[in-house]
């Protein structure tokens, strides 16, 4: 979410505040502002693993969809700008540099929402969904055998068995 918020701030015009939604006891800022909220996480492949000397990394490939809602004057234009920039080479390059485990996939068409403030005033509100491919990694330690040794023992009667097989 941090990387996405940083990218949104590079695309939206100056003066926009970008926040993560669903935070308790946080009053919304004065518009214009954008809220990001994860709306789905969908697995797209079976896990893969990378083994290291004392650890294993489990990699889950998923598509995370984040709804970005823009409030205030210019929200519609901002949503169109985000939709256009999300499918551009610059967005891919940004995530490759900032968060290599993530890559932009696609975005929904911007949509307008009716929104009236507590003061009964209309507020320009638009949203779009941005899909991001992510390779989520969990690394945990594992025990492994570095060296294996077995004590040699003499089996009683083994010589007699060998003599019978040779005959």
TrEMBL record:
Residues 2-145 form the Phage neck terminator protein gp12-like domain. Pfam families: Phage_tail_terminator_9. It comes from the Bacteria. NCBIfam families: LIC_12616_fam. This is Phage neck terminator protein gp12-like domain-containing protein. It comes from Saccharibacter floricola DSM 15669.
